[in-house]
Design a protein that fits this description.
A hairpin with a 5-residue loop joins strand 2 and strand 3. The chain has one domain. It is mainly β. The strands form 3 sheets. The protein has a 4-stranded mixed β-sheet with strand order 1-2-3-4, with no helix packed on it. The protein binds zinc ion. Zinc ion binds next to loops. Zinc ion (ZN) binds next to loops.
């Protein structure tokens, strides 16, 4: 479960209970970083993306996002699941 909010400067020793909220140039919350439940590498999801893909709907208070998250191979491990109330649940 994600329960410890961290600052960007601290993310070298991030654990699977830690998360980082990213903000944009207007100081609006725009993304979350956390460790993948599958491979423990960092996953980043954002409300906006630079390409054609839609962003996630993220509730930064409850740590809930939609749609699902896929840690896309080959860089990711293929873990697929949801962030709901701070819990990462595989689907
Ligand atoms: Zn992974």
């Amino acid at each position: 479960m994600l329960k410890n909010i961290r600052n960007d400067s601290e993310w070298t020793d991030i654990t699977d209970e830690d998360y980082i909220i990213q903000t944009d140039l207007n100081n609006e919350k725009c993304g979350i970083l956390f460790l993948c439940s599958g491979c423990k590498k960092i996953i980043a999801i954002a409300t906006k993306t630079s390409g054609d893909l839609p962003g996630w709907n993220i509730d930064f208070e409850t740590l809930t996002s939609t749609p699902s998250i896929l840690h896309t191979p080959p860089h990711g491990c293929g873990w697929h699941g949801y962030l709901t109330n701070g819990n990462l649940n595989a689907c």
